[in-house]
Amino acid sequence: MADQWTDRLSDYLDDELEPAERARVTAHLEACGECAAVLQELRSVVARAQTLPSTPPRANLWPSIEARIARRSVFARIGDWASQRVSFTVPQLAAAALALMVLSGGLVWVSQYGGRTTSLPPVDAHGVLPAAFANPQYDEAIADLERTLDTGRSQLDPQTIRIIETNLASIDQAIEQSRRALAADPANAYLNSHLAEFQQRKLALLRRASALVGPRS
Amino acid sequence: MEAFALHADLDAVPAAEPLSIVARAARGDVRAFEELYRLHLARVHSLVRRMAGGRDTDELTQDVFVRVWQKLGSFRGESSFTTWLHRLAVNVVIERFRAETARRQRLHDGEEIFETLSGPNASRDLPMDFDAALEKLPDGAREIFVLHDVEGYKHHEIGSLLGISPGTSKAQLHRARMMLRQHLK
User: For B25, which of A211, B6, B33, B83 could close a Cys bridge (C-beta 3.0–4.6 Å)?
Assistant: First the structure.
């Protein structure tokens, strides 16, 4: 048995040799019992490899895997959210750049000059009245619409009148609550916006209701 | 990258899972994924153990299934799920050990161990089963033997995976077989 032959036995077994080379090895194997025995052993190795048993691990690996995929899922969702592409058109980018320039310029101006003109004493929060607390134009508009509605009341069916009155009562209640709260905390921005919102709702409701009764005759 | 064709022996393992389990797992159903895990665990664990020579087998197996979970959405059914899974497992093991030493160097390392194991006295005096002998092979020869004779990869596929020539793959395979023939009994 010589290496020059045995080295070719795996290729022979796997049919990787050129025909001429394969013929030479075949001829040698017919004459050399030792090489033929090695070839048989190599064939057995390959056969054994293809029938190796599969064995599971002794430890339970699933809890750790489950924990890792759960953790990765959370990070992946965060990553997906963070990596979502936000795209802008060129005009949008130009507008954003312009806005940034104006803002930057304004800040620079305020830092240069703004501080020098603020020599007034601090504002007394209790002295600030909510914008809508006393608004004659608003009150006048409401009064006018209420008169229109009263005049044309007979044109509306009872169910419509009931709905309008119920809604007006709710709005008035919210307005009243806001006013009482603002009396104690006049500078509260949330209460002021809350009051303004319900005043707007009342105005809108009265306008719609007035429209239902038509122009005064 | 070209597709890898595996031997028909994979068909016998494990019972083919309904595609619906794969689909449900791909949609994020953890219970379906657990079913897949249990169906394939023994095969994947054994593959990883043989490829890695018994090192960090449990940890690597966990890495494989976590990777499967991440990549499941990219499984298009172009090959069988088992083929896809085993290829992914092979890649996880290769990536793990690629950083340790240059692969070419490893293929030529361990000659001493190889000769010791393949010597006639070694096999007679220290009997060991086939799997144990496989784990004792030098890393490169063992990986090539597992990929070719156990998993059914071709030499050019192994060359692509390991960054070696098909000729080197053939030579290492032969040497691995020559050593392992001593441990057939």
Answer: B33
Hey, are the CB atoms on A65 and B9 less than 8 Å from each other? no
Say how many domains are in chain A.
2
Q: What is the ipTM of this complex?
A: 0.77
What is the longest distance spanned by two Cα atoms in chain B?
56
Inside any domain, residue B2: no
Provide the domain limits for residue A181. 126-213
Report yes or no: A80 at the B interface, CB cutoff 8 Å: no
Confidence of residue A192 (pLDDT cuts 50, 70, 90): confident
pLDDT digit string (tens) for B88-141?
999 999 998 876 655 555 555 444 444 445 444 443 334 468 889 999 899 899
Do B94 and B119 belong together in one domain? no
Residues B71 and B107 in one domain: no
Q: Kindly state whether residue A68 falls inside one of the protein's structural domains.
A: no
Please check whether residues B91 and B109 belong to one and the same domain. Answer: no
Check B150 against A52: CB less than 8 A apart. yes
pLDDT digits (tens, 9 = 90+) for B148-185: 999 999 999 999 999 999 999 999 999 999 999 988 76
- pLDDT at residue B40 greater than cutoff 70: yes
- CATH number for B124: 1.10.10
State the residue range of the domain holding B156: 103-183
- Chain A nearest C-alpha distance from B42 (Å): 4
